[in-house]
Amino acid sequence: MSLEHPEDLFTEATNSPSTARHKILIVDDDQSLREFLEILLAKEGYSVCSAPSGKKALRLMDRENVSLVISDVRMPGIDGMTLLKKIKVKHADVPVILITAFASLDTAMAAMKEGAWDYLTKPFRIEEIREVVKKALETRPKAQSLIRDTPDKIYKLDNMLTKSPVMLKIFQLIPRIASGPSSVLISGESGTGKELAARAIHNLGVRKDKPFVVINCGGIPENLLESELFGHSRGAFTGADREKQGLFAIANQGTIFLDEIGELPMTLQVKLLRVVQQKSFTSLGDTKEIKVDVRILAATNRDLEKEVIAGRFREDLYYRLNVIQIRMPPLRERPEDIPLMVQYFLDKYSKEQNKAVQGISSFAMEALQKYSFPGNVRELENIIERSVALATSNLLLPESLSLAEFKQQKTAESSPFSYEPCLGHEGLDLEQFLSHIEKTLLKKALERTNGVKTEAAGILGLNFRSFRYRLSKYAL
Fold it and tell me: What CA–CA distance (Å, rounded) separates 319 from 131?
């Protein structure tokens, strides 16, 4: 242990209310290190407890209201990384600081991805541990106030909702990085909410009252993109009859979100690298340097490392943008969020369309939960919006999902009924199509419940009288 000023360990503690209310748990199989940290943190005014193993630490956390955990990485039994994962499942809001004498970049990155607050290497300075602990505890109340939850453990951050532990880790990371200056690369499939994450970073940071500028790097022709990003002077090219301010200048003191950054042409990657490094650029057709103070957030649905290897993306720019990385998980990795989002979109579009749709049948929900959602959250929203528009009752049924271009899994085993439309000469024969769907659903519901009509009615969201009427209608 490196102690530049050992006497600092024994300075008078402030014991301020802000420190006294926090309990810190020290986890290490090395008794001398536990005692050292206990003395240090107690002198700072914190309440301190300790455990010699991960197993005992978890038991203690079930009994005590712990505000922060400091744990060694290498311990017999439950090691520091495993302890971190277990804490994030049961005590997601408790920051964990990992310490080790055997540091490696891979372990540090893995620790941060699993939700570690920080990762310190031995020997560390007294001032370093003091500062890290102080910052973690100061930020925790802020993060807790930003991440609101309900008794059903539905978490909300800015305009995002989740019940998923995977997404909760992202919710906990965003407030920590929101006020910093570092570039952030948000990766993930189309429709996973990358722009929502970027907006949350902006809205929760110190630049929240400044511009948030979005540009889709793949949605603008290459010959116009440079002008959009950096502006142009009058006469810079044919048709440039006036000076134009670029989006980087418009975003000054705020945030610029570069969506589909992997589509950026190589020539503009060079110019963007200069903005990232030097915070300056020149407009098209001009030589005057323009200084900007802009935080850059970028998003991609491509594997940029592969793009670098293939020579389609500059390695130096990749590392400049990828200071902090957030991976937005696809919807199939967070199935617990599907019912939550379905209800959210139902409420939203029922209100917008002045409809009284209040819920979704269990049969329709089951179909949604079996679907892989290649378009992710954006596709789910589209399905529900269309379904509400087509709904004829206060409950969404599978046929509404069908008309919203919902597709069942391609395998016959997972498809309880066919969604093939019955087409007439002039297009879709809607009455025949709906009758076919309704009759098939009734049969499948009866098959699933072995002919028990009350249960079949329940899984279709019908009362028994309505169900019996439909059986009579189709002579079933």
Answer: 28
Q: Are 293 and 155 in contact (CB under 8 A)?
A: no
Outline which parts of the chain fall under CATH 3.40.50.2300. 6-139
- Whole-angstrom CA distances from 247 to 173, 210, 278, 298 are 28, 13, 17, 14
Between CA 143 and CA 82 the distance in angstroms is 23
Q: Divide the 476 residues of the chain into consecutive groups of 10 and give the mean pLDDT of each group.
A: 40 44 89 90 91 92 90 90 85 83 70 78 83 81 58 81 88 84 92 95 92 90 84 71 84 94 91 89 81 94 92 93 91 92 92 88 85 88 89 80 48 41 52 76 84 83 82 80
Q: What's the CATH superfamily of 160-329?
A: P-loop containing nucleotide triphosphate hydrolases (3.40.50.300)
What one-character DSSP code corresponds to residue 296? E
Note the residue count of the chain: 476
Query: CA 85, CA 62: separation in Å to the nearest integer?
Result: 15
Q: Which CATH architecture has domain 423-476?
A: Orthogonal Bundle (1.10)
Under CATH, which architecture does the 6-139 domain have? 3-Layer(aba) Sandwich (3.40)
Q: Provide the pairing of β-strand 295-300 with 255-259.
A: parallel
Phi and psi, residue 377, nearest 5° = -65, -35
User: May I ask the CATH architecture of the domain 340-419?
Assistant: Orthogonal Bundle (1.10)
Report pLDDT for 398.
78
Start-to-end CA distance of the chain, whole Å, equals: 81
Q: Are 202 and 179 in contact (CB under 8 A)?
A: no
Contact call for residues 314 and 269 (beta carbons, < 8 A): yes
Separation between Cα atoms, residue 175 and residue 195, nearest integer Å: 16
- CATH 1.10.10.60 in the chain is located at 423-476
Q: What is the spatial distance between Cα 137 and Cα 129, in angstroms, rounded to a whole number?
A: 12
Containing 105, the helix (H) or strand (E) segment is: helix 105-113
CA 462 to chain CA centroid, Å, is: 36
